[in-house]
Sequence to fold (354 residues):
Amino acid sequence: MKPRECKAEVAAVRAVTPEIMEVDLRVLEPAEFTFDAGQWISVPFGPKIVRAWSMVSPPTRRGAFTLSIDVAPGGIGSQWARGLKPGDPVQFKGPTGGFVFTRADPRRAVFVAEEIGIVPIRSILSHLYETGYGRSTALIYWARNPGWLVYDADFRSLARRYPGLQVHGIVGDFTLHLSRLPRDGAPMVAFLGSTIGNLYVEERRTFLGAIADNLPSGGSLLLGFDLVKPVDRLIAAYDDSKGVTAEFTRNMLRVLNRELHADFLPETFDHIAFWDPVQERMDLRLRANDDQVVHIPGAGLSLEIHDGEEIRVEVCTKFRVPSITGELEDAGFSVRQFWTDDRGDVGLILAKKP
Ligand SMILES: Cc1cc2nc3c(=O)[nH]c(=O)nc-3n(C[C@H](O)[C@H](O)[C@H](O)COP(=O)(O)OP(=O)(O)OC[C@H]3O[C@@H](n4cnc5c(N)ncnc54)[C@H](O)[C@@H]3O)c2cc1C
Fold:
């Protein structure tokens, strides 16, 4: 079905956890609304402002489906979702998206998800297995704590009924709990999105070494990273003229205020982003533009911060192929392949544990 302008009404809302809610929608127009498991809808909130949510339910109920929404404090879409009640009208466009997997596909599927990213996969796996899919698939599912491993009980129940489905739910921190990763066969660890660049060099050494220690011989690492590029492009990305990154950085203080009852005044900090040519990394800081005393009751801290003092928010290291290859080899890997994009902006390396 092509995406269309649709009208629905809320049939029910439920809290799954304090941060995640489900919304049942009954589609009024078009009369014959169908979707493929894994697809999503988008809801408009103004000119050029839309939010997308995937269906969490399998496409077996005619003209009805369920969304599962992480209701982040402060977000436009989340605020809207929190206010929904049965009978409310909802306009949306959909269904959209090609993240689908059908029984006609001959490959053995391995699904990988993090926290709320599980939503489309739940629709796909429930649909496949509850409609007689006999082949095997695996799900590797990570969350920061058990409360974010939503639908874990459903997946375990599905796996008990359909032994072809292997479910690995993992709660942990990738810097501490690598030993919890499944080790069957010749596993591959995929570490993408250039998160490696947020680790300090000593942390990278420990982390890459720990991956190598936890992989059996023949296992591999697929590592994504950002490549060194002209400084003006990097500065523009980390200190944009509209101030979006600056607000993003200051939001860290708002989060401390909200979660740990701190009393930071975010507007009294300037966002600083500079290129460190020695470490080849962007260094992001908040610099106080006034003397202040800040209390963080949730952490039992009081801090005296002087005018001009800085709080480092993060580092984002950019790599060159020889340097990252050297780090991987020092950790015990042998680099097999390197890919980049047309502009040479990002890199992907496949490294094997001999
Ligand atoms: C294809 C697709 C499918 C998706 N499926 C799902 C799904 O099934 N379930 C799901 O939960 N999500 C899903 N998402 C994500 C979803 O679309 C929203 O991005 C998400 O719900 C957050 O939107 P929001 O409007 O609540 O937050 P936003 O308004 O986008 O804000 C995001 C966060 O930034 C903070 N923030 C916003 N503005 C500022 C600012 N100026 N300064 C500081 N902080 C700020 C907010 O507090 C919030 O925590 C999907 C996204 C895509 C693209």
